[in-house]
Amino acid sequence: MKEVLYNREKVYDYAKTWAYERNPQYYNFDAVGGDCTSFVSQCIYAGSGIMNYSKQNGWYYLDGNRKSPSWSGVEFLYNFLTTNKYIGPRGKEVEVTDIDIADIAQLSFDGIKFSHTLVITKIENKFDLNNIFISSHTFDSFNKRIAEYNFEKIRFIHIEKVIK
Questions:
Q1: Domain boundaries, the chain
Q2: Cα atoms found within 13 Å of the Cα of residue 38, Cβ hemisphere only
Q3: Which end of the chain is more exposed for a tag (fewer CB within 10 A), N or C?
Q4: pLDDT (tens digit per residue) in 9-63
Q5: Residue 106, exposed/middle/buried by CB under 10 A (0-12, 13-18, 19+)?
């Protein structure tokens, strides 16, 4: 196994291209719970180029019926990124001051369950949520201020590395 570049510029470019559209290479999950985490997984894949095909704990997409739970599930993506010890992207939960472009934010609207995943596409000031911008599906947006969401909790996942 070796480390490869997580290309944050490719993540940004993918988000910009597909924020208001659906890439026909991927199933649109809007009608079955939302497309937010699948969109963010697509962004991460654009920047990493590596999937983890482990049936148990992987992160992969073959088609709408053959994908890992972590590809399209909020908590499953969090668990994969923060515990992955094998190939693919690896991340860790961080404070807002440690985020970067192409990192991930997840929102809890009720303060209990995290239910929305976003990709960070612009940062003007890490100390003010009004100056952190995200892109997303389900609530389609590109460079939307994260502070425009009405949420109870937020967590950030910094993509540390990608292992091939």
A1: 3-163
A2: 29
A3: N
A4: 999 999 999 999 999 999 999 999 999 999 999 999 999 999 999 988 999 999 9
A5: buried
Q: Which fold has domain 3-163?
A: endopeptidase fold (from Nostoc punctiforme) (3.90.1720)
Count the Cβ atoms, other than its own, within 10 Å of residue 126.
Answer: 15
Full-model pTM:
0.97
How many beta carbons lie within 10 A of that of residue 130, not counting itself?
11
**46 φ, ψ to 5°?**
-60, -35
Nearest partner of 79 among 100, 65, 58, 61, judged by Cα? 58
Asked whether the beta carbons of 100 and 123 are under 8 A apart, the reply is: yes
Question: What's the pLDDT at 56?
Answer: 86
Which residue has 């697509």 as its token pair? 42
